[in-house]
Amino acid sequence: NAGVTQTPKFRVLKTGQSMTLLCAQDMNHEYMYWYRQDPGMGLRLIHYSVGEGTTAKGEVPDGYNVSRLKKQNFLLGLESAAPSQTSVYFCASVTRTSGYNEQFFGPGTRLTVL
Amino acid sequence: DAKTTQPTSMDCAEGRAANLPCNHSTISGNEYVYWYRQIHSQGPQYIIHGLKNNETNEMASLIITEDRKSSTLILPHATLRDTAVYYCIVRVDNAGNMLTFGGGTRLMVKP
Lengths: 114, 111
Hints:
In chain A, 0% of the residues lie in helices and 52% in strands.
């Protein structure tokens, strides 16, 4: 199993540009999450999904949209990027089978908005 | 979810046990204690979790006090690869719940 993968690994955007980050998991996990981590800080939840076709807002959802059209994929979109969205973005997934105990994280996407 | 308090940083000699404390004095009866770690530039990694009994797995041991207001993560024989930020998280084990990460403890294992 590849686990949780994220594409791209790095990206530089100009203010106002848009982009989509892709998270994919091959573990048949029901729940998926998008977090952001600013330098020297802990992770903060942006959006999450409890299943295919459903999404919900986390702690810091403004400026982001998400979609979960397929169980294995969770997309994070930035419609009009701002310098405040410069961060490292982590995706995670978890399964009901393990009692939701162990979230598996991807390697992260480093995004810089100029 | 209950708030946790951890020291900002700790050092440990390679081969010795690393004991990382966490205070969670407002923990509720149905909240679990979780530990994750984040090695530099990588995604967080689950280590262990518990409710009220001590727990042990291949990575670490978790000691929870009887009143559940604090806990200690023990890495029995720390190696240089254990250098990381360790996060203590308290939450209800419900479907769809999220992890709330605080500042964590930066553990430096030294030769």
